[in-house]
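ingest -> validate -> predict -> emit
validate: passed (alphabet ok, no gaps, 495 aa)
predict: started
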Amino acid sequence: MSDVYSRSSSTGVFFSPSAERRTDFRSCCGEMFSQLTLCEHVDAAVASLARREADLLVLDLTGFDKLSELAGVGALIRGRAGAPILLLCPYEHSAWVPELMAYGAFHYRICPMLDDEIQQAVRQALAVPDDPAAFAQQELLDKEKELRDLLGVQRSLQRALADIDMASLMASQICLALCNFPGVRHTAVLHMKERGDLQLIAQEARNHLDLGRLLQRRDRLLQSPLRDVFPPLMAVSRGEMILLDAPEKAGDPELAMALHDRNVRMVLALPLRAEAGGPEMGAICLMFDRHITFSREQFACFASMAQFVSFGLGMSELKHRNDALSGQLSQLSTVDAATGAANRRAGEDTLDNEIRRARRYGLPLAVLSLDVGSFSSSNDLYGSPVGDGALRKIAEAVTDRLRTSDTLARMRGEEFLIVATHTTSADALRLAEKLRGALSDADLPGAGHGATLSVSLGVAEVGPEEAGAAVLDRLDTALHRAKRAGRNCIELAAA
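emit:
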């Protein structure tokens, strides 16, 4: 249905599905038009425009819940072919503005608005320049400057994303880059951690605003009482861009006053997600000291920047996960799972490295071989869990008596290797005696079942030109002598 009201001035068509909004607009702006048609349905608006070309089409999106409901509105915008349109969009659905720009150009304002603000917006939309050629030239110059500004910010942002090693440092550089946009006085990056914990990880303030103090927290931000009114929190919880072109429109007087005190006149927040339709991983927030009516190119640039930031944070997280997995794999490849000591390969690599270091600096280096006897029979009698537990206890007892610079490695079965840095053969023999005494007193699993323990040790000091394989051969010979000599014997390898 449609109603026509006659007034003095231009002709207009106002579309809104809300009867209350149509009545309010007629009361506020009816006298600005010689003829004003109020339309409830898109078809009525199309028919009205077909009967008579209107000077201004006003589209009020209040009452719509989903973007998918606006297909007819998009057709109205396209059908105007550049003729003046004023779009009134609710604050919580401001993400619809750039989406509808794909259908054509229009003026837009974010609601709610006071009557005088609506009247001013209508006058601006109806205004005809005195010198159309000069106006077009100025628009071209403004567009060139706008694109230069956007290009500069994009370049700064790309440099900020070059270092993904530390997410917090990268986020700080992102905030600095975004502050290069004209009018921006504060920027922030919010990042979603595990279990829905949204954190403020970086901010850059040119107006002394501390976002953490404003929200009274720096983590678990989605639990803030401002979740449903503050743009970056809304951007994360709703998963879409939020544009607040006046702090008071958020509906929270204390928030509006706090932002006005820091010279914030407009807030833009964009969600961060690694892929379209994916889960929100945070938001970026820009606060402006002036009102700016963004163009389609600017909205597109902001969306692109948000995508860049999402990729950067995603790559940083992926790198940290890969580093952690690499560390775990490295540990798995160098640690003996049963005892926690280094495995044979890691032990031999350590020996080779320490031989090179000892030779370079002229330092002594000793190796000890330790074999636990009477163990196979215990495993046969009481099972491998008892035997593995005893081996783990032995490794712990030995490690407790070694220096941090020494290395314990399990070579095979019940045989262990000790690489003792800065150690002569005499010092190594004293260490062997200490280990033999400690292990004979150790409270091992299986002792209550009659398990017995004997330890044989071989000791060797690495020669000045001796390779790792050679010293291990000498050490093996000494260990076999110790085992043949009886229980709990120590043998020094021949030079």
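The chain has three domains: 2-126, 132-319, 344-492.
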